[in-house]
Write a structure and sequence with these properties.
The structure is a single chain. This protein has about 725 residues and is α+β, with helices and mostly antiparallel strands. The protein folds into six domains: about 1-210, Hypothetical protein af1432; about 220-360, Beta Polymerase, domain 2 (2-Layer Sandwich), CATH 3.30.460; about 370-400, no CATH class; about 405-475, Ubiquitin-like (UB roll) (Roll); about 570-655, no CATH class; about 655-730, Alpha-Beta Plaits (2-Layer Sandwich). It is about 45% helix and about 15% strand. The chain contains 27 helices and 20 strands. The strands form six sheets. It has a five-stranded mixed beta sheet with strand order 1-2-5-4-3. Strands 12-14-13-15 form a four-stranded mixed beta sheet, with no helix packed on it. A four-stranded antiparallel beta sheet has the order 18-19-17-20, with helices on one face. Helix 6 crosses helix 8. The chain starts with 15 loop residues before the first helix and ends with a strand.
């Protein structure tokens, strides 16, 4: 375990002179102007509530200065250190952002503001949603990175968690366990992503110490020697390898580290082995100029020490799926101690650390997110280059290309929700649940009512106000009003209106079809599923909707439906049997060259549902299936019924059909109906009219010749539109 020393005085209470002394003892690379900035931050911190304490019982001032000291050891700039010194102070009601900008500059003030917003996430009283711990932890990490417009804010947050873990020994077991779990799941992976290796392994070791104390103690006791001794061993091996590589002309950069306890424990758990079978307790990384030198360096290593069988992987010859390349080998090194050696070129190392094979991604097994990874790469590069800037501002610090395209906001229960940048409270509502979006009528952001088209910021807490019977507004999908930014939410609203219109069209279509079936005296319901398939529709109700929209006519459904149903009921008919026997209109199942005729009682028309009746000496008489005479047949005569169907290709012929008209009695009614019949080129076979003087009603029965059901439907529709006409329908 790391032993730390502090420049702060003993005890929990810190006075002004203690802070001044602490600033004076900081490293010399902080010049006079830097220290003046820190003194201003100290004055603000000292002016805050002296009795303020953290959730863990430590005074707020000592906590802030301890975090700042960690950042000093990380050699951070004075703006970062000053922001850390003000942790918790910005909650003071008298401390305003404008005042902070004036005192310490905009960069520091903005960092303090971001830290205040992040502060809610460090409250261990918020519960992680059950069954959602992995996703919740990942979203919390993303939230931290999303809030931080300045990457240094994330470094402060990680340093603060490290200080909490260093001082967690005095906490209650329950609180300590929850703190350690939060550290393992959120902050250690975050430090890993940012490449802050020293803080990463210390956070992991401390979390293991509290989560699995027995395993921690057992591994620590089995390690041969203190960490300092192991580091000394690594340094001696590096010196030896430098000498050997130089002798064979290999230009190598060598670094090494003893494996920390958490990493050992994790590998033991993953491989189900004891510590004796862990061969990388001590590890070296060798960076060379090209691939040829990789294998030359490997030859030197294997020439010096005995190779451990089964512990060699050549990922240069056979890269991993994520394009990671390196040579891994394990040997019995000096003093009979195992040693792992990784050998790669500088380009391979850069790819492994910052490219698609980045260490944090394949170790943490998170989903691919190109924008998020691009931002991580930029953050890592920022950390690597921060010491190269003469002005103290890191290169690319304000690079607009690295602006995040996602934001992370909180539900009132503390769950993190990821949204595209520019998302509004209405986008948030739809991301929680479609019904919440539909019923949304307002929103509170950080406790304040806001407009539904106001863009959200990372770290804000959003509460949606709903109405029980609320419905979407068409304004929401107007791009000029800015209510919805995400395509997913817009599609939900569009689907709602489409569904609303759909239901309306279904009702219209159903009513139209029923009206047409009554008018045409079609009693057998059409096979809507078959009709849907014919017109590339999914369901039977889609047929009603198509009628309601005008895509299909009711007669198409009533007529074709009857034809489809007859085809399903008919026995298989050979191509030869499909030759119509009379006028080419009807086919009798299983019989060829049989005379057919249309029944005068019901007068079938293509494509009425029909059935045949075998007569004595007159062939087959074709009736409608709902014909009263057919329904009245006794059992003996029903055996003479045969399946018939309309031919696929109808001959140019006409069929007699009767229809009834009931209307208010007026002059010119018969003339108007006759004009329609003439215009439709329909021959009238018979007319029977009757006028009721008492009710002033005219009842007319027409027998006409039509070519098919569609012509009949068109005729009835036009007659129905005449003035005073109340009933128009086909009759038997």
């Amino acid at each position: 375990m790391v032993t730390t020393t502090s420049r702060l005085p003993e005890g929990d209470e810190i006075a002004g002179e203690d802070v001044a002394h602490w600033i004076d003892r900081l490293p010399e690379d902080l010049d006079g102007e830097d220290r003046q900035c820190l003194r201003k931050a100290a004055d603000i911190a000292l002016a805050a509530d002296p009795n303020a304490r953290t959730l863990f019982g430590e005074s707020q001032l000592r906590h802030a200065l301890s975090v700042a000291e960690i950042l000093v050891d990380m050699r951070m700039d004075q703006e970062t250190i000053a922001a850390a010194m003000l942790l918790g102070s910005f909650h003071e009601k008298d401390l305003k952002l404008d005042h902070l900008i004036k005192m310490l500059g905009e960069n520091t003030a903005r960092m303090v503001d971001d830290l205040t917003r992040i502060g809610m996430l460090t409250d261990l009283s918020s519960e992680v949603p059950a069954g959602d711990e992995g996703e919740h932890a990942e979203n919390l990490r993303r939230l931290l990175l999303g809030i931080a417009e300045d990457i240094r804010v994330v470094l402060i947050v990680v340093a603060e968690q490290l200080h909490r873990m260093r001082t967690a020994r005095g906490l209650s077991p329950e609180l300590r366990h929850r703190l350690a779990q939060e550290t393992r799941d959120i902050y250690a992976p975050l430090a890993n992503r940012l490449g802050i290796w020293q803080i990463k392994w210390e956070l992991e070791d401390l979390s293991l110490r509290f989560l699995h104390p027995d395993d921690y103690k057992r591994i620590a006791s089995q390690l041969d020697g203190r960490r300092a001794d192991r580091e000394q061993f690594i340094n001696q091996v590096i010196e030896l390898l430098h000498e050997k590589f130089h002798a064979v002309g290999v230009n190598a950069e060598i670094s090494g580290r003893p494996k920390h306890i958490y990493s050992i424990w994790r590998k033991m758990q993953r491989k189900s082995v004891d510590i004796e079978q862990i061969f990388d307790l001590r590890a070296l990384r060798v960076l060379v100029d090209d691939i040829a030198q990789c294998y030359a360096a490997l030859g030197v290593v294997h020439g010096l020490w005995k190779h451990i069988p089964g512990e060699f992987d050549d990922y240069i010859a056979t890269p991993k799926a994520n394009l990671y390349q390196s040579i891994h080998t394990a040997v019995i090194g000096p003093e009979e101690k195992t040693l792992e050696v990784q050998i790669r070129t500088g380009d391979m190392h850069h790819h492994a650390e910052l490219g698609v094979a980045a260490h944090w991604r394949y170790k943490e097994n998170t989903k691919h997110d190109a924008d998020f990874e691009r931002r991580i790469v930029w953050m890592r590069q920022w950390l690597e280059q921060k010491e190269l800037s003469d002005e103290g501002e890191p290169p690319g610090y304000l690079d607009a290309d690295m602006e995040a395209t996602r934001i992370y906001v909180l539900t009132p229960q503390g769950k993190v929700v990821e949204l595209p940048k520019g998302a509004t409270p209405l986008d948030f509502a739809y991301s929680i649940h479609t019904d919440i979006g539909h019923q949304c009528r307002g929103a509170r952001v950080d406790g304040h009512i806001v407009q539904l088209n106001r863009p959200l910021r990372s770290g804000e807490s959003v509460e949606i106000l709903t109405a029980k019977n609320g419905t979407p507004s068409r304004d929401w999908i107007n791009p000029h009003l800015g209510y919805l930014h995400s395509a997913r939410a817009r599609n939900r609203v569009k689907q709602w209106f489409k569904h609303l219109d759909y239901e309306h069209h279904v009702d219209l279509g159903r009513a139209a079809l029923e009206r047409e079936m009554v008018r045409l005296s079609v009693t057998e319901k059409p096979d809507l599923e078959a009709i849907a398939g014919k017109h590339n529709l999914q369901h039977a109700e889609d047929v009603y909707a198509a009628i309601g929209r005008g895509d299909l006519s009711p007669i198409q459904v009533a007529g074709v439906g009857g034809r489809a149903r007859q085809a399903q009921r008919s026995k298989p008919i050979t191509p030869q049997q499909r030759t119509a026997t009379v006028k080419g209109e009807v086919v009798v199942a299983g019989v060829d060259d049989l005379m057919t005729s249309m029944a005068r009682c019901c007068k079938p028309v293509p494509y009425d549902p029909i059935i045949g009746f075998v007569t004595r000496g007159r062939g087959v008489t074709v009736h409608r299936r709902d014909c009263a005479n057919v329904r009245a047949l006794d059992e003996a005569n029903r055996e003479r019924l045969v399946d018939v169907l309309w031919s696929d290709q109808q001959a140019q012929t006409t069929y007699a059909v009767d229809f009834l008209v009931v209307s208010g009695d007026r002059k010119g009614l018969l003339r108007d109906i006759s004009a329609i019949l003439t215009n439709e080129d329909i021959d009238v076979i018979g007319v029977n009219t009757n006028s009721d003087r008492k009710s002033d009603t005219a009842t007319m029965r027409f027998t006409v010749e039509v070519s098919d059901m569609e012509q009949l439907s068109r005729l009835l529709s036009k007659v129905e539109q005449l003035p005073d006409v109340s009933v128009v329908k086909r009759i038997s």
